[in-house]
Design brief:
Blueprint (H helix, E strand, L loop, with lengths): L1 E9 L2 E7 L14 H12 L9 E6 L8 E7 L4 E2 L3 H14 L11 E6 L2 E11 L2 E9 L18 E6 L6 E7 L3 E6 L8 H9 L9 E9 L2 E8 L3 E3 L3 H13 L6 E6 L2 E7 L5 E16 L10
Parallel strand pairs: 2-3, 4-6, 11-12, 13-15
Antiparallel strand pairs: 1-2, 1-17, 3-4, 4-5, 6-7, 7-8, 8-17, 9-10, 10-11, 12-13, 13-14, 15-16, 16-17
């Protein structure tokens, strides 16, 4: 069947957005049909046999009429993600592109989108160099080990924890931005095989739900550079929740101020961990294209 889709990129992170109502057996796509959505995600996100992207957003009407949209988020391996800081901006831009009920999209400055990590508030800041810019309220970082979840024998916050690995232990800082994160500080991205280390940490037994991994280089009190190994995806050019977690980790370790610019391979983001405790992520979104995906309904192999 033909499934209408739109593809967006946010600082090098790319996402496909589809409507739940356009999917096969749409009326039964509840939580019990997670396997069916996982099959679709693996197929459509495949780089060579699908459209190709880091993640899939399935959009549906919100449970609360006061909100604008509800989304479920899937990784390339078919696993479901709680939240995506870059992806939620793509979903907001998709909503502005497609919603016809309430007048001009430029009048829609503040959106509320339901995720499995809670309702996220997104402000449309404006346009810049062909992209839309959004500011996302990422909520407070989660620092308690049990809530992250992290099974190490330590009380929160988890700072400079010696994580045992196959080659040697590494000091890590562990947080959650609605999804689990492990931040590793490095002087250079060439001092270790960070992709191999990221792959190992992602599935480390101390992370019951696996984890996202960030490798962080501090450039100044106001700027950091980060490389990302995302749970269920692998290496990505950028990550919104990962940038937020890296900024929180840098501040917890006393290495930066609470407001920083984050340099990623895909572009720059701004993270502000305010004195009130909330984390705000600001960055661009660009529409790549629209089309129809020819879906056979056959399960695709899981990504490795």
């Amino acid at each position: 069947m033909k499934i209408p889709f739109a593809k967006y990129e946010a600082a090098g992170n790319d996402f496909i957005v589809v409507r739940a109502e356009d999917l096969p057996n749409a009326r039964s796509l509840g939580s019990a049909q997670k396997g069916r959505l996982a099959d679709l995600a693996r197929a459509i996100l495949a780089q060579h046999t699908g459209i190709g992207a880091d993640g899939l957003f399935v959009a549906s009407p919100p449970a609360d009429s006061g909100h604008h949209l509800a989304v479920r988020i899937f990784n390339a391996d078919g696993s479901e993600a709680e939240m995506s800081g870059n992806g939620i901006r793509c979903a907001a831009s998709w909503f502005l592109d497609t919603d016809k009920r309430r007048g001009s999209r430029r009048a829609r400055k503040n959106l509320a989108i339901e995720t499995t990590a809670g309702v996220k508030e997104i402000e449309y800041v404006g346009d810049h160099r062909g992209s839309r810019v959004f500011r996302v309220n990422m909520s407070r970082p989660i620092l308690e080990p049990a809530a992250i979840p992290f099974s190490g024998d330590v009380e929160g916050p988890v700072i400079r924890y010696s994580l045992p690995l196959s080659q040697r232990p590494l000091e890590v800082t562990v947080t959650s931005m609605g999804n689990p994160h492990c931040s590793v500080f490095v002087r250079s991205f060439d001092v270790l095989d960070w992709r191999a280390v990221g792959r190992e940490i992602e599935r480390h037994p101390l992370f019951p739900n696996r984890t996202n991994v960030e490798f962080v280089r501090v450039l100044s009190r106001r700027q950091i550079e980060v490389r990302f190994w995302e749970r269920g995806v692998g290496e990505t050019a950028s990550s919104g929740t990962g940038s937020s977690a890296a900024a929180v980790a840098a501040a917890l370790n006393g290495l930066t101020q609470r407001k920083v610019r984050v340099r990623t391979s895909g572009g720059e983001l701004e993270v502000d961990w305010t004195k009130s405790g909330g984390v705000f992520l600001t960055g661009p979104v660009r529409l790549i294209g629209r089309g129809y995906y020819e879906y056979s309904g056959e399960p695709a192999a899981a990504a490795t």
